[in-house]
Amino acid sequence: MTLRAQDRRGGERSVQTCASIVRERALADLRGASVTAEVIHRIAEEVHACCPQASRFKCFRLACGWTVEEAIENFHAMCDRDGVRRRGLTERSWREWEAGARPDREYTDLLSRLFETGPVQLGFANDYTPEHLRAATTPTLDPIAAAADEAGEHAERAEASELGPGALDRLRAEMTWLGRRYVWESPLPLFVEMRALQERTRKALERRVHPGQARDLYFLTGALCGLMANVSMDLGRRGPADTFARAAWTYGNVAGHRSLMGWARGMQASVALWDERYHEAAGYAENGLTHMRTGSGGARLYMLRARACAKMSQREEAADALARAADARGSGRDDLHDEIGGEFAFLPAKQYYYASVAWLHLGDTARAIEEGEASLASYEAGAGQNRSYGCEAMARAHLLIAHLMEDDSDGADRVVAPLLALPPERRISSLAITLGEGGELLSGRSDWQSTARRIESFCATGLPQAVPALNEGVGR
Question: How many CA atoms lie within 13 A of 3 on its CB side?
């Protein structure tokens, strides 16, 4: 298979994975209620927003959960039900339409009838309605949220300056809320909201703003890039994650926001770690420390450096970085890590988890288990809104490895049970890599074959990492 064919196949699987996650979440929200045309429209829009390379026509099929063959069967059934001549629809024609070709007028009408929509929504025609009229005719799915948005937008327009403090406060509040929701919500749907909010911050920068307002807007735009980098990594997309992280650093530099610059370098270090570029990971962490050495943000960078050094078997350097991280935590605060927090926070539970990973790479399984158990205890004792399911899952995955290396089946079963109960939409891609190592340790062990099969089943369901084209790691 050529590289171009592999890329096409990988892209196809990426779109299918994203569509599956969006559809599963939407169906779960229905709580057993029937799937209406309105729901299908919403799913198709979310899939297209996350995967713009997919045609709108294809997004509608994926929103319905159909294969191409199933879509054609439903098309023929609709024709029979409505007393319409079937015509000779083939799989080849359908795939050509999904690739960008346009059907004739009769087929366009029938396909619109099938999906209960119009040619514009299917991407077969252009909509020249002015933007303000188009928005006025769009049905609202959430009248309370829509009314709140209208009130906020009107208040923004009513301010004397082109961008008053009310507008900035609203943008900052929405960005903060997205970052905090990231801790407990599935990443893909949040990406759609992040992208829309970032478009608003960019448009605000095009208006006449004061220098201080511009700095705030550059910071908000960069922070959103940081959150989108996390989403990319949680879906196994290292390339986009690194691009988003670099953009976050650039926006932070323009804004003069040192903690954002440090956080972004840490994100790049995390990308490099999972890409096995350990020298670069250490370099990014060290560069980040030139922007911030104290507080939880400094602790995070020292911990990332410790993990990189541990991977390179640099025991003394790793131990030094671990000690410096402990000293840094109690020596300062900043607005990004401690005030905004959420996904930007680096709480003690996550520091214990990072320490567990570092000791595991250094071969000290007893210390890795000690730090890992401290991480789980800290997550369980902490506030629910700070309990990052992704980090807790990764802490459990590494604890599993440590217990297996210690030949401790009871400990392994204890930490893996809650992990394997994680819903598919919350299974971030790094779990497959770490659990894959666990599977290798279990191979050939007849007494643990049941656990091995459960892990294999877990990795095959809902994990972006299970898709070859997305086999790239995560930034947690």
Answer: 0
